[in-house]
């Protein structure tokens, strides 16, 4: 009866409820969040302009439109923008681990050599992080020629994560989320 559901992560339950008559929910655009995380790493490793494949199309054709992300120059940070999920568009959100089509093209490994990245997720038991964000990261890492080792924390103890970094010299980059 058009009652709004609140599932800020636009999780599968909230999206499925829209098909049954609920009003809508909000998506954090996790697909764009995951892409931005790994794309910034890829760009830094390649020594290219940080906006490559984000606001500026890369050689594979990957580019985001300005309605799905923003860049805060003062904070030097990219952010995915929230999007309303309604009866008109909910079917686009039924698979929360699907890569975002405008940035789904494989990079050429001759131009973008495979690099090894150590990336931690501060709380492996968090529903959004473990069932949406990390699977999306895994879907993007191959497209961006990144060999990512994912480390899941317990959400409480930083040493639970840092103690698992045994040989830092084997990695080209680190993404640390505490």
From TrEMBL:
Keyword Transport: no
Domain MglB-2 periplasmic binding protein: 114-178
Annotated Pfam families: Peripla_BP_7
Protein name: Galactose/glucose-binding lipoprotein
InterPro entries: MglB-2_Peripla_BP, Peripla_BP_I
Assigned keywords, A-Z: Lipoprotein
Species of origin: human gut metagenome
């Amino acid at each position: 009866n058009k009652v709004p559901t609140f599932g800020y992560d636009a999780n599968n339950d909230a999206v499925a409820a829209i098909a049954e008559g609920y009003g809508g929910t909000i998506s954090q655009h996790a697909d764009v969040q995951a892409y931005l995380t790994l794309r910034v790493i890829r760009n830094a490793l390649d020594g290219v302009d940080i906006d490559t494949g984000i606001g500026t199309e890369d050689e594979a054709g990957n580019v985001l439109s300005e309605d799905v992300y923003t860049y805060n120059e003062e904070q030097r940070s990219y952010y995915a923008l929230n999007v309303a999920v309604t009866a008109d568009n909910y079917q686009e959100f039924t698979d929360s681990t699907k890569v975002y089509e405008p940035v789904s093209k494989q990079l050429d490994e001759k131009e973008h050599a495979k690099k090894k990245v150590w990336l931690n997720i501060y709380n492996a038991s968090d529903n959004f992080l473990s069932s949406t964000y990390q699977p999306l990261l895994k879907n993007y890492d191959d497209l961006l020629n990144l060999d990512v080792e994912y480390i899941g924390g317990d959400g409480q103890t930083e040493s639970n994560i840092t103690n698992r970094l045994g040989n830092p010299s084997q990695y080209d980059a680190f993404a640390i989320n505490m």
